[in-house]
């Protein structure tokens, strides 16, 4: 009787031990990564505002990572709707969520992400000048911190030359941008110097928010021969308001990027925002998979540059466009 009981107890102990082993082996498999348990990377995307250029950059970024990682990447896309406070909230939530990487689309999103974390890698895109965004004068081409990315700065000297090329009779240029966007101010300062070299008189006109656009654009149109708008998120989201005033007054606008040009311009020296977003995605892949250090990664710049124009507007304004310009497809507008 005692031997029988002892056998039952020993059998029970053996079963329990075996179950523990199986459970332990199962846990080990899940953490070590079998064929069905590879890591899925979680990416937080903070886009500052919705307009064509930033939308294209986000699309390019996502496509690059999907091309490289397939279904092993998940995106959490948030839009700040042109509000710095919302950008800060988004960045802080990404930190709480412990995302593997933050993609910051536009300068305010980058600055908010930098405030939120010094540890999570940040890859930014659609940033005109990283030195300005980082508020540094000791610029080496690398950030030295947990940030890298791609810039959207087109050659400003060539954009200034477009005024001379398309509008040879123009004497005065109004530079329109949002006063709260540091990168817009940077572009305005640089291109003003370029206009001076070309013998053009230029004056800056700024808006604090979209409520100022009607009055400021009306003033510009009464004082200048043409308008230049840099890559500016505030203006990009309100091009219809600019167009409604400037176009009837026959004041031509040279734009810093294609989205603004579609909305209210006649021509632009355009970069591909999809391409700089895609390049940012490839940089993110190197960080996530190959342990690249964002602090040591060179900021990359757009290489695809095309002179583009809006055919209907240049025709209406009797502007002769050289053959090396490409007409913008306005069929979806």
Quick description:
The chain has 333 residues and is α/β, with parallel strands linked by helices.
Folded structure, characterized:
- This protein is of the alpha/beta class and 333 residues long.
- The chain has 13 helices and 13 strands.
- The protein has helices at 2-32, 52-69, 84-96, 107-116, 130-134, 156-166, 182-197, 213-223, 233-236, 239-246, 258-264, 273-290, 311-316, and strands spanning 41-47, 73-79, 101-105, 122-127, 147-151, 172-178, 201-207, 226-229, 253-255, 267-271, 300-301, 305-309, 326-327.
- It is elongated, with a radius of gyration of 27 Å.
SSE arrangement:
Layout: H1 2-32, E1 41-47, H2 52-69, E2 73-79, H3 84-96, E3 101-105, H4 107-116, E4 122-127, H5 130-134, E5 147-151, H6 156-166, E6 172-178, H7 182-197, E7 201-207, H8 213-223, E8 226-229, H9 233-236, H10 239-246, E9 253-255, H11 258-264, E10 267-271, H12 273-290, E11 300-301, E12 305-309, H13 311-316, E13 326-327
Parallel strand pairs: 1-2, 1-3, 3-4, 4-5, 5-11, 6-7, 6-8, 8-9, 9-10, 12-13
Antiparallel strand pairs: 10-12
């Amino acid at each position: 009787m005692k031997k029988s009981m002892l056998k039952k107890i020993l059998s029970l102990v053996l079963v329990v031990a075996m179950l523990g082993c199986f459970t332990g082996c199962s846990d080990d498999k899940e953490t070590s990564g079998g064929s069905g348990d590879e890591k899925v990377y979680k990416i937080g995307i903070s886009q500052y505002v919705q307009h064509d250029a930033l939308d294209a950059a986000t699309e390019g970024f996502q496509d690059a990572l999907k091309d490289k990682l397939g279904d092993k990447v998940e995106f959490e896309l948030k839009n700040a709707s042109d509000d710095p406070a919302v950008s800060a909230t988004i960045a802080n939530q990404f930190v709480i969520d412990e995302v593997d990487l933050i993609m910051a689309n536009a300068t305010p999103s980058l600055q908010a992400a930098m405030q939120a974390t010094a540890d999570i890698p940040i890859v930014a895109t659609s940033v005109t000048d990283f030195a300005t965004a980082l508020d540094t004068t000791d610029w080496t081409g690398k950030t030295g911190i947990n940030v890298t990315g791609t810039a959207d700065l087109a050659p400003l000297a060539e954009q200034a030359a477009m005024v001379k090329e398309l509008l040879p009779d123009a004497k005065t240029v109004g530079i329109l941008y949002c006063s709260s966007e540091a990168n817009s101010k940077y572009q305005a300062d640089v291109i003003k110097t370029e206009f001076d070299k070309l013998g053009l008189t230029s004056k800056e006109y700024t808006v604090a928010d979209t409520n100022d656009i009607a009055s400021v654009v009306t003033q510009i149109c009464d004082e200048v021969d043409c308008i230049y708008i840099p890559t500016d998120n505030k203006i990009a989201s309100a091009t219809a308001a600019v167009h409604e005033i400037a176009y009837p007054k026959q004041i031509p606008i040279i734009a810093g990027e294609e989205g603004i040009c579609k909305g209210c311009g006649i021509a632009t020296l355009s970069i591909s925002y999809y391409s700089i977003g895609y390049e940012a995605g490839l940089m993110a892949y190197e960080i996530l998979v190959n342990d690249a250090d964002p602090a040591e990664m060179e900021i990359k710049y757009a290489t695809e540059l095309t002179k583009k124009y809006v055919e209907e507007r240049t025709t209406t304004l009797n502007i002769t466009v050289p053959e090396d310009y490409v007409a913008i497809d306005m069929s979806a507008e």
